[in-house]
Design goal:
The chain contains no helices and 11 strands. By secondary structure, the chain is an all-beta fold.
């Protein structure tokens, strides 16, 4: 079992930065692919970024490439999402997710993630 707790959300002006953290419990964090997804009001949950267990491979949605950076600390059992140049369109609830251990490929598919956090709100004002 993996439990995930996000933090770091808030209100920021357009062009600003924010860093989200996701703390994971459980013994398998270093074996889990981790991802960030987001959901805006009235929209479906969408992929943002993912990272493989070693941290050596990452995926990004085109909409956030070159603005967002995912990283992980396998000692602290934490995955981070550093967001720069934020836009009002980035406003959403951001969710941290984990694949079951044993999968080593970062994925864009939310149905391949078995564990989810409760989400943290990010609001970008224009």
């Amino acid at each position: 079992q993996v439990q995930l707790v996000e933090s770091g959300g808030g209100l920021v002006q357009a062009g600003g930065s924010l860093k989200l953290s996701c703390a994971a419990s459980g013994r398998t964090f270093s074996s889990n692919v981790m991802g960030w997804f987001r959901q805006a009001p009235g929209k479906e949950r969408e992929f943002v970024t993912a990272i493989n267990p070693s941290g050596g491979s990452t995926l990004y949605a085109d909409s956030v490439k070159d603005r967002f950076t995912i990283s992980r600390d396998n000692v602290r059992n934490t995955v981070y999402l550093q967001m720069f140049s934020l836009k009002p369109d980035d406003t959403a609830v951001y969710y941290c997710a984990a694949r079951s251990s044993g999968f080593i490929t970062a994925s864009r598919n939310p149905y391949q993630y078995n564990y989810w956090g409760q989400g943290t709100q990010v609001t970008v004002s224009s």
